[in-house]
Design goal:
It contains seven helices and two strands; from the N terminus they run αααααααββ. By secondary structure, the chain is mainly alpha-helical.
Length: about 270
């Protein structure tokens, strides 16, 4: 059908009736084998009257046609199978390549579908990150105060422990001195030995009455004399030495644990940050 720029006419759109072929010899319906006797019968007068001259070209054409017929009949199937095998191999390779390409495209499509919410995911991540930074900033404001409070509590605890140690050490020292002094006094005085013995016997017999225990009286006397002696002396040197030792200990801990403050020689805290 010819090409037209305008719309197709109705008669062109109608199907064209094709006459049905009967097949056979020249469409007559006769078998093709009738061509052989007809050809022989027609060839005799044609050659006899030199209507067709058989020369070298005719012989060459006959040989070529014979070769083509022989090749088609004898080796046609082999050639067809070889070409068809090659075509099948090419088709198989092409199909495998197409399947790989299709699989890769499907995988890419699946990946793109899985990541189609990537923008929302990143927005959610950024929101979480911003919230975390805000929490860290808020914690950064509170943390120094919390650390400072913990450091002050640590120093107060150290001072309390040190005072308890000094008090306990003083008690032990006084008791040791009192015991040594009373023992020496009773060892050197026979009267006190006799009084202590009589008091022990009376205690055992249960007839102590209102008599004072000489051992207890000796300890009380020692502590009174020790108190009077302590009242006469200021004790500033010893107290100063204890305070300096405590300040050095606290400053050592503060420097090692990076406290926000330290103590000067007078025991006054000073901020260092």
């Amino acid at each position: 059908m010819a090409f037209h720029a305008s719309e197709r006419r109705e008669e062109e759109a109608k199907p064209v009736a094709v006459p049905e072929s009967k097949g056979g010899l020249l469409g007559s319906g006769l078998s093709e084998w009738y061509a052989l006797p007809i050809g022989i019968a027609a060839a005799v007068p044609i050659i006899q009257f030199d209507w067709y001259v058989i020369n070298e070209e005719t012989q060459l054409a006959a040989v070529f046609i014979a070769f083509c017929v022989t090749l088609y009949t004898q080796a046609g199937d082999a050639i067809y199978k070889a070409l068809d095998q090659n075509a099948q191999t090419l088709l198989k390779d092409h199909t495998e390549a197409e399947e790989k390409v299709i699989a890769a495209l499907e995988e890419k499509l699946h990946f793109l579908k899985a990541n189609q919410n990537m923008v929302n995911d990143f927005q959610a991540i950024n929101a979480l990150r911003e919230n975390a930074y805000n929490n860290l900033n808020a914690a950064g404001i509170v943390k120094p105060k919390h650390d400072f409070k913990a450091q002050v509590e640590r120093v107060l605890q150290m001072i309390a422990v040190e005072e308890a140690n000094v008090t306990e050490k003083t008690k032990v020292t006084l008791m040791s001195e009192a015991t040594a002094a009373v023992t020496a006094e009773f060892t050197s005085s026979k009267a006190m030995k006799k009084a202590a013995l009589d008091s022990a016997i009376a205690t055992i017999e249960g007839s102590t009455g209102k008599k004072e225990d000489p051992v207890q009286a000796a300890f009380v006397k020692f502590f009174k004399e020790k108190a009077a002696e302590a009242a006469k002396t200021s004790g500033d040197a010893e107290e100063k030495a204890q305070r300096e030792a405590l300040i050095a200990k606290i400053n050592g801990v503060a420097k090692g644990e990076k406290f926000f403050f330290e103590f000067d020689d007078k025991g006054v805290p000073k901020m260092i940050v």
